[in-house]
Amino acid sequence: MNHFPIFVAVEGRRIVLSGGGDAALAKLRLILKTTAHVTVFAPTPAPEIEAWAVEGILRLVRRPMQPGDALCAALFYAADENENEDARTSAIARADGALVNIVDNLQDSQFITPAIVDRDPVTVAIGTEGAAPVLARAIKADLEAKLPATLGTLARIGKSFRKAADALPFGRPRRDFWADYYFNAGPAAISSGEEAVGPALDSLLVDHLSRKERPGHVAFVGAGPGDPELLTLKARKLLDEADVVIHDRLIAAPILELVRREATLLDAGKEGFGPSMSQSDINALMVEHAARGAQVVRLKSGDPTVFGRLDEEIDAVGEAGIGYTIVPGITAASAAVASIGQSLTKRERNSSVRFLTGHDMKGFADHDWAALARPGEVAAIYMGKKSARFIQGRLIMHGADRATPVTIVENASRPDQRILTTTLAHLAEDIAAAQLSGPALTFYGLAPRAAEAAMNETIKQELA
Ligand code: SAH
Predict the structure, then answer these.
(1) Which of 214, 217, 341, 389 has the most CB atoms within 10 Å of its CB?
(2) Which reaction does it catalyse (predicted)?
(3) Confidence of residue 149 (pLDDT cuts 50, 70, 90)
(4) CA 398 to ligand 1 centroid distance, Å
């Protein structure tokens, strides 16, 4: 982000513009929406500018700019559409202490003007740092269509009601009230006229004042494998409402971006079974916040019920007498298998699939290895990077075919996804050589569909 978006207070301050042609007009149409004092310097102003001057909504000075003309100005626009004149006027304005924008000259501008969706006092500013004006216009058109014209009115009336709404306790009760106003009661009332909004706010407040506060709660939410579009609608909603979000390290940054801005974001640091906050610390953290009435989201990668130590966390929350819900997510095996164009189960190949963790192999009984070593078996191995050699050894020892396909999907569903194809015989050396740094899921007994098709073709040719 080379440009940081902010909203500048311009009420009662000066905005100065040099220029009298089309570029000046385009900027003035925006600037005149503000409550700033606008001054235009133009020896030959367009008729519209003359008219605005006559109406008294801007001050027109019919001469080129001179030093001191932009004194005390908050912002300055160089809009003469002439390189030399723009350079001259912007130097004056800079010396006078104004922030400078030169029309169509990103390089020398100190700020840029975004595309604006105006539902005053609600304004949406869209910027692309000059990279894609077409995109900015498309987004603007989209928002113009989406945001009802009455939104500004609702916000204005809402603003005048803020003091009254302070009767509600700070935090969630107040937030719930406003959400109810903007998304339900407000739009319903305004459809029968602006004057219906005030009374609607009054009765909404009475209703909310009589409500009991929601008790603290913990939602164990699956964040999926990393692609934010693979979140469930429930997960999105909970992230939007959470007071506290306690997340594992594996949660991808674009998903954390979706957390409500005011929520407390806590990194529990768990990555597989790697270095982390201790399980009892995490339990204590959830309980502590929920006991204080917070809506806690315990955000876990993939599906919370798969290798997530979910039961320990549920026990802790349950013992503290705190309510909880579980929101399933897309587990890494589902995302990884999709990326290789295969199914986890397939008629006449495997009617069952095992989810194993490579981390704790000591608990995996010998007869399980024997079963897995039979032809056609499929397993999804989580946290299997370090234990690749052990798994390979056990399977071969129990008679598995060394040519059994093995596919490793690193960063499934993420932009940096990588697919590594190998066989049981070469699993350990290939995994080491690949130097995987992200989370990786190992499929035993599955090759990517394309590779499988190619292999079948070779076999057919050899047989022919
Ligand atoms: N509950 C999670 C698993 C947690 S254990 C789930 O349902 O997916 C952590 C392991 O999950 C990692 O070591 C890795 O094997 C796997 N994993 C998680 N996200 C992954 C991803 N995007 N790509 C590949 N494997 C992933």
Answers:
(1) 217
(2) precorrin-2 + NAD(+) = sirohydrochlorin + NADH + 2 H(+)
(3) confident
(4) 27
Q: Percent of the chain having pLDDT more than 90?
A: 79
Whether the CB of 340 sits within 6 Å of ligand 1: no
Question: Phi and psi at residue 256, in whole multiples of 5°?
Answer: -65, -25
Q: Give the model confidence (pLDDT) of 404-461 as tens digits.
A: 999 999 999 999 999 999 999 999 999 999 999 999 999 999 999 987 777 777 767 7
| Helix, strand, coil share of the chain (percent; to 5) | 40, 20, 40
CA distance 38 to 60: 9
- Residue pair 312/281 in contact (Cβ under 8 Å)? The answer is no
Distance of alpha carbon 203 from the chain centroid = 35
- What letters, b where the CB count within 10 A reaches 16 and e where it falls short, cover 340-350? bebebeeeeeb
Q: Whose CA is nearest to atom 6 of ligand 1?
A: 302
Phi, psi at 446, each rounded to 5°: -130, 135
> Ligand 1 test: best mutation among 313, 326, 382, most atoms within 8 Å of CB?
382
Pull the structure tokens for residue 183.
Answer: 């998304």
- Does ligand 1 lie within 6 Å of residue 225's CB atom? yes
Pairwise CA distance, residues 74 & 110, whole Å: 12
Residue located via tokens 């979706």: 258
| Partner residues linked to 267 by β-bridges | 247
Structure tokens at 363: 């608990």
- Answer for the pair 418, 448: CB distance below 8 angstroms, yes or no: no
Which of 116, 135, 131, 121 is CA-nearest to residue 5?
116
Q: What does the pLDDT look like over 97-126, one tens digit per residue?
A: 999 999 999 999 999 999 999 998 899 999
Place of tokens 């700070």: 170
End-to-end CA distance of the chain, in Å? 60
Catalytically annotated residues? 248, 270
Is the minimum distance from the CB of 117 to ligand 1 under 6 angstroms?
no
Contact of 348 with 370, CB cutoff 8 Å: no
Quick one: which H or E segment has residue 298? Answer: strand 295-300
User: Both tokens of residue 251?
Assistant: 């949660």
* Phi/psi of residue 199, nearest 5 degrees: -60, -35
Atom of ligand 1 nearest to the CA of 383: 13
Distance from the CA of 405 to the center of ligand 1, in angstroms?
Answer: 20
**Beta 405-410 vs 440-444: how paired, if at all?**
antiparallel
Atom number in ligand 1 closest to CA 409: 24
Give the atom of ligand 1 at the shortest distance from the alpha carbon of 329: 7
